Amino acid sequence: MFERTSVGLDVHARSIAACALDSTTGEIIRQTLAPDDVTAWLERLPGPIAVTYEAGPTGFWLARTLAGAGIECQVAAPSRLLRAPGDRVKTDKRDAMSLARMLRLGEIVPVRVPTADQEAMRDLCRAHAAAVKDLTHARQRINAMLLRQGAVYPEASHWTRAHSAWLGRQHFDHPAAQAVFESLLEAESLAVQRRKRLDKLVASAAADCEYTPVINALTCLRGIDTAAGFGLAAEIGDWTRFTGATIGSYLGLVPSEDSSGQTRRQGAITKAGNSHARWLLAEAAWIHRRPYRRPGVRLLKQWELVDPATRIRAQEGNQRLHRRWEAFDARNKASTKANTAVARELAGWCWSLAVPLQQGAAMKAA
């Protein structure tokens, strides 16, 4: 649909700078608005109108509000916005004007706007990841302090009941050191409790949500447990937007490139797109380096939840990804680079499992 008025919004927590371009009269309308006044101001503009704003910390509530009011709104991907190299003046009004002009020219690359339920699931998976990282850091601090004091646990396995009992027997002569050690143990205990609570919430949400079939399929791959499968499903959402070749690009797992003429240079991965999904895939890729001859107990239980075609496809993926690791190790490839390559291919296998399920669900809904 042709829009008479193109509107760019520079959104902040307490104020929004708006710029509207009327293509019929050429008029430029600028306004500084409170967040609650945006919809009413837009409805007074000559229509039809289209609106865009840059994705950022304010989230997607404004896009959902405008969509509910029947106003077309695109949330622009920040990394794909056009900016002149010589433009060194940045203000809210200029940003709003730039967004309005790009929208008029059709140069906005939109991001997918999740529903409120989908955003809540995304927040849950990120909270779980944060809890896991906090627990890791808490344990690292305990290990670091013990190492500085010359206390080394004699066994190879850590954070077991025996290790916890050994930690409880440690004592330091200086009161300050003992107080710090007890504080670190308390922080680790609280982090464990928090992670366990979020584990239960993730398991409950994954078992009964719109992404449950996709999660069950993704967890048929090695390295992807319920939390990782839930995170990938919530972060990516609609897998049918991509192909097996473009999913790696979306996740920033493809090499950057600087080529001109007959010269072709490739560098590190772009790290574009969803950083949390990329991290989940990179962590899962390390598991495929381990020997794989037959599925373990977890995979066998998981395979009971999916159809035979998904089970066969997942088994092919597990075997293929392990062979890739073996080939990289045989070539003495740097492990970090090899893991990135395996993560990129793992993204393609995840896509091949998720897309048939979502396409089938869409056909049934139609």
UniProtKB/TrEMBL annotation:
<dbReference type="InterPro" id="IPR003346">
    <property type="entry name" value="Transposase_20"/>
</dbReference>
<dbReference type="InterPro" id="IPR047650">
    <property type="entry name" value="Transpos_IS110"/>
</dbReference>
<dbReference type="Pfam" id="PF01548">
    <property type="entry name" value="DEDD_Tnp_IS110"/>
</dbReference>
<feature type="domain" description="Transposase IS116/IS110/IS902 C-terminal">
    <location>
        <begin position="217"/>
        <end position="288"/>
    </location>
</feature>
<dbReference type="Pfam" id="PF02371">
    <property type="entry name" value="Transposase_20"/>
</dbReference>
<dbReference type="InterPro" id="IPR002525">
    <property type="entry name" value="Transp_IS110-like_N"/>
</dbReference>
<protein>
    <submittedName>
        <fullName>IS110 family transposase</fullName>
    </submittedName>
</protein>
<feature type="domain" description="Transposase IS110-like N-terminal">
    <location>
        <begin position="7"/>
        <end position="147"/>
    </location>
</feature>
